[in-house]
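Think of the structure tokens as a kind of shorthand, similar to the way a musician reads notation: each symbol stands for something richer, in this case the local conformation of the backbone. In the example below we present two proteins back to back. Begin with the first one, reading the sequence and then the tokens, and try to describe in your own words what changes along the chain.
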Amino acid sequence: FLFPVSNLCGKCRPRDTDLLQPSLNFLYWSLHQTTPCSQQRAVAVLLSNVSLLELLQKVLECTWLWSPPSRPAYLSSEDALLCSGWLLVASLLLYQHRYNTEVHQTLSVDLTEVLNAVIFRNKKPILLLVSILQFLRAVLRQNFSSSLLVIVGQNTAPSATQPQPSSLQDTALHPLAMQQVFSLVVSLQNLLVHKDLLLSQAVVACLETLVEYLYVKNQDVALHVASQPWHRFLLFTLLSGGQKSFLQPEVLRLMTLFVRYQSSNIISQKEISQIVQEAAEANLAELPEATSSALHLFLCQV
């Protein structure tokens, strides 16, 4: 079914949401729920379909066009389609890189628009933010150098008519700028305060990947970002309310991040001891899988 469904998508317009959204979901499911051998073939089929990629290009661009001043509280059919489009593209980026699949048509994305979608949010539904964060994480993991993707934006092609990078740090972090990095980090912190499980998982994963990217580009910048005092306030905020346990997946993953980058002003030996004590007293067999995985990574890092 992969071949006819992808061909059908290529014949649609972005406004054909009732047909496109479940079709893109089927393509996404087909990439993830299969064996590695079948997965490699599936990626090759999708990336060889130029009309499908052109359709995905239009869907991504609709993210910036379909932005009414007052969005409905529920997930509209248009927003659902955008979620499916961003998630499918993020997956194609991941698997194209993994299998080094030939690319017949590139996708173009404005980096400034992507960052602004997270930084300013503009009443975007949580699921759409999660989908865009998945995409952003994928391009960060590939160092903005995927053969499937062309990154455009104000910082991606300095010229004589554009402002040059304001500092050596901006040059090292290219195509990101320092101001964008700090704005993005603050926005990710603010999104964590919402305490939505799905959003928290996506935000922490994106923050982890961002700091990893920064560490490769400029270790001083990465360590500076990881040691921002606001992170400690964020941890106390996440631990407030009904569940004060450190054994929450997003808290454990944040703690792991701070231990990895030696942010002793954020997480102290006392907090590390508290986590180990809580883990020792907990019934590990009853912990949710996400918590068990996060705890394992934390203890390995310690």
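Once you have a description of the first chain, move to the second and do the same.
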Amino acid sequence: CTFSIFLFSFYRKSLSRSSVRSRMSLRSPKAYNSLQKGAVIWDPKPLQVKKIFEALKKGLNEYLEAHQAELDYLSGRHKDTKRNSRLEMISQITPSLFPLQKQIRSVERYIRKLEFHISKVEELDEAYCIQCRLRDGATNMKHAFSLSPSTKASRESLVELYKNFQECTEDMCFIERALEVHLGEFHLKMKGLVGFARLCPGDQYEVFVRLGRQKWRLKGKIETDDSQTWDEEEKIFIPTLHEKFEIKVTELRGLATILVGVVTCDSINFFTTKPQAIIVDITELGTIKLQLEVLW
């Protein structure tokens, strides 16, 4: 067991140079100045974070494929235009080529940014997996030592294991904070309530959407032609790793308010290129639904 502790400690120290805290390319001082060595901000959530890693990489690759297809299309048009200009013997480069060239350069720049973004996410994913495995190893070894007779050597080994466990936990928290910088934005658009007979002209509702500390409160009214008017229709939310969308709908009746329902919605499926129509059951029986459109 003592030799195993030595190996674990050696492996842990050998990886410390590649730790996310020691690589300046993975963190920005402005973004992470609240994370100090020795202070754990929250408990890491490996299962949730791994799901977000996969969803994020899938969504980024979808964007990359879409823009690569656009680049191929523009490049094909560019070649056709140049060939036609030579056939017409007008000039080697016609004025119609310049907008195409500008579009091509713009798409190429965006593709390079996407490729860099994907590489950073993959780098964080790899570092997170390493720290997660080391943390699990420390946990298993602590359990093994707890079942053996207590000696001075075993107590010293347990202290070292606890230290390694804490270092892995801090690194995982650091990576989680670094990952949040790469999650982009969610653009939420209010599409209205769906309630059939439950919604009557003149009814007024308030919808409250919260994601962590981010809040969106808007009021709407059912008009005589069954259309709906809302005082605000769009809101941008910054995705987080550990919070879900919480949606609360209340009906306004004069000075009184009646709670219609409160639901939560996971955002892990929002990391995709196409706008998504989200219909959420506000009441338990689904008699009133809330329809949102989410664009990442």
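Compare your description with these statements about the second chain. The chain has two domains: 46-181, 186-295.
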